[in-house]
Amino acid sequence: MNISTAKFVKGIVKADELLEDGKPQIAIIGRSNVGKSSMINSLTKQKGLAITSSSPGRTQQINVFLINKSLYFLDLPGYGFAKASKQDRETIQKLIGWYLFESGVIQKMVILIIDANVGLTANDLEMIDMLEEEGKKIVIIANKVDRMKSSQLASVLKKIRDTVEVHPVIAYSSKDKTGVRELEKLVLG
Ligand SMILES: Nc1nc2c(ncn2[C@@H]2O[C@H](COP(=O)(O)OP(=O)(O)O)[C@@H](O)[C@H]2O)c(=O)[nH]1
Ligand SMILES: [Mg+2]
After folding, report:
1. Which of 2, 67, 68, 101 is the most interior residue, by most CB within 10 Å?
2. What predicted TM-score, i.e. pTM, was given to this entire model?
3. How far is the CA of 162 from the centre of ligand 1 (A)?
4. Ligand nearest to the CA of 113
5. Domain of 34, in residue numbers
6. Assigned domain for 1 exists
7. Looking at residue 71, which CATH number applies to its domain?
């Protein structure tokens, strides 16, 4: 199966706009600038679907996309963006926390994206802990592997896998499309 259609549905800006029409939801989370929006574009093969930016901290709402008319991707704002104002950070944390832990939505899976060149940060580990506590199904995407030497890649992936243990880790590049097929299978499976 392929992803054949994808369209923007809406932006969720506050913690009460529930989207529950029975279609499965897949949350896409990670620090600012790791490539969440780019991942959506590469997976759906629509370059401009999710807005990407080289300056971190741009997305402050949850952007909802309908995939194959049958499931939703939710592009969440990035967590742990140090340069954002305290108030913006709090608003974003609240929105993420509400959607993942208080809304009652049971996600089909939570895709946590990291920059493979940076590895897992303290914020990522904290998020993984909280998701595990709630029994969420987690998939880790190690993005931007196009920037790594193949000699580094194996050891970096091993380190990530040793840390997260049970969760699948996919080496990914939105730029050269590494891992797209593998992730597509997981998402649609
Ligand atoms: N080299 C490389 N750059 C990427 C990749 N994915 C995203 N980027 C770049 O990283 C920056 C942030 O991407 P974006 O998707 O907006 O990140 P988000 O904040 O997590 O949604 C942009 O400049 C992208 O072009 C990738 O796989 N490889
Ligand atoms: Mg984004």
Report:
1. 67
2. 0.95
3. 25
4. 1
5. 6-15+22-188
6. no
7. 3.40.50.300
- Give the residue whose CA is nearest to atom 6 of ligand 1: 35
Beta-bridge mates of residue 64:
10, 74
pLDDT per residue as tens digits for the range 72-113:
999 999 987 666 788 888 888 899 999 999 999 999 999 999
More confidently predicted of 14 and 145: 145
Binding site membership of 107 for ligand 1 (Cβ less than 6 Å): no
Residue 179 phi/psi, 5° resolution? 85, -5
How many angstroms does the Cα of residue 35 sit away from the middle of ligand 1?
4
Ligand 1 centroid from CA 143, angstroms = 8
CB 52 near ligand 1, within 6 Å = yes
Cβ atoms within 10 A of the Cβ of 95, count? 20
